[in-house]
Amino acid sequence: MNTKPNRQWQNWLDRNVYDLARQMRLSYVPPLMVYLAAGVSGLTGIVGTFFVKDYLGLSAEFLAMLGFWIMLPWALKMPVGHLVDLLWRHKTKLIYLGAALIAASLLIMINLLADRDYMTQILPAETWFVLSVLLAPIGYVVQDTVADAMTVEAVPRFDEQGNPLPEAHIKLAHTTMQTLGRVAIIGGTMLVAAANVILFDDVHLMSETEKAAVYLSVYRWALVIPLISIAGVLLSAYLRSQQEWRLAGQGYEREDINRLLARPEDELPEINWWILGGGLGFVLFAVLMGLSDIPNSDAIVFIGSLAIVMFLIWRLTLDLEPIQRNQLYGIAFVIFAFRAVPTTGAGETWWMIDVLAFDQQFLAQLSLVTSGLTLFGMFLFRRFMAERPITHVIAVLTIALSALYLPNIALFYGFHEWTQAHTGGVVDARFIALIDTALESPLGQIAMIPMLAWIANSAPPRLKATYFAVMAAFVNLALSLSQLLTKALNQVFVISREIKDPTTGLIVTAADYSQLGSLFFIVMFLGLAMPLSAIFIARRTFLKDRS
Predict the structure, then answer these.
(1) What pTM value is reported for the model?
(2) CA separation for the pair 340, 390 (Å, rounded)
(3) Would you give the end-to-end CA distance of the chain in angstroms?
């Protein structure tokens, strides 16, 4: 006989997991495949970390600056999102463009690993690497923007007999579609983490030549990423043709079929020249500054980009009711501060590799734990996010994430040596890292969900993709600010790994992790202070009238 806790557990599973599976439809699969490709993109993450550490002489400061430029293309979702709304029938062609850019990025790395001498005759290896890491996010931005639009198309508005579905049913379907999209992305990261665990088995025992061969095989396997998104487009075209044949068999004429399957005319937007012009201005400004030799050009680009995006948000939200507009501003401001918190940068990973002896396989295991528990956390905290205001959610996440920095600090000061000696070697550095990752992993991905839900429920029907794009651009600029702050911290707290001359084998730069402990404390303090300060300000300004 089932006990009360068992019944409660079964009810929770049915409400949060099984019900989501019951609402799954075949029409949802095409955009989910594009999201899955985004999740699978992490396949090369660990390889990239070790490639930079072992083969390139790039500093932690430079990598933090490069991280800023990598995040900047996500602000391109502004003009791309509006173009997708305008060119609704041609949006799938953008998937092919994104796939081509992603493939080009992977092929550069494949050739760099397979024939480094030939590639360096054309350009330095560092230049090739920078080009590769800049091409990939542009491709993913294009695909992600189109996938957002495809989620709208995937939700049917008519039943199989051509009768309109109830509004409540359509709204629930959109919510399900957005949830499944997050599940697809996290599921993709789980797949690649599991693959990395297998691919990196005993890699720490291999010679440098054998390691390079493993790295090369990972990048070759990664070529499946653009194929996944292309397969989603092809499946979408097939499902559309099947629907057309079914309706034609029921006696519908071509015009009626288009009316039933195409986007409603009242949801097609007019051209917003502010969005397009502002987006174009942003692109030109960023490119010109990036190619210039002006000191701190990345900071200037950030300030200019933030000004442009904030102006576009103001223009875009003029038609909203004041309460709705202030609510959106308040939510965006709080999430911006939460995501703008700096990190310790690449130096922490180098320290884990060199001092704690974390190898490629263990880092893959950490990634697998992170992905799995993030997916679980999305279900676990689903009701928590729905029933509480955004300020409460972010406050809880901020305090939890700040507290979870303490194990990293403890590891730096040798706490694992004490625990290892008193537990027979059970509680070592890897054990502490796994537990810390298990506790931290579900939290970071949760903060964006409330704002996505607000957009899905409140944004005008004609501008769903545009709203998603502009707000995503604003929030992703927070990650750019995070990288700028990370770069600044790495300029103050200098962390360096050992770099050897590839020809002579002589040490060019000695390893120095002595300032990492101070960096941990500063990042933990900022991680606590920045979001809580934003919450304090938002609740007394934008959200003061919210009940």
Answers:
(1) 0.71
(2) 17
(3) 44
Query: What gap in Å lies between CA 513 and CA 356, rounded to an integer?
Result: 12
Per-residue pLDDT of 128-177, as tens digits, reads 888 888 898 888 888 888 887 777 777 776 666 667 777 666 766 766 77
3-state secondary structure 25-44: CHHHHHHHHHHHHHHHHHHH
Whether the CB-CB separation of 350 and 53 falls below 8 Å is answered with yes
Residue 13: Cβ within 10 Å count: 12
The 3-state DSSP class for residue 497 equals: coil
Please state whether 154 falls in left (phi above 0), alpha (psi between -120 and 50) or beta: alpha
Pull the structure tokens for residue 255: 């015009």
Task: State the DSSP code for 413.
Answer: T
What is the 3-state composition of the chain as percent helix, strand, coil, each rounded to the nearest 5?
Answer: 80, 0, 20
State pLDDT tens for residues 458-470. Answer: 666 666 666 777 7
* Region at 313 (left for phi over 0; alpha for psi -120 to 50; beta for the rest): alpha
Q: How many residues does the chain have?
A: 547
* β-pair type (499-500, 507-509): antiparallel
Kindly provide the residue ranges of all beta strands, DSSP E only, lying in 59-144, ordered along the sequence. Answer: none
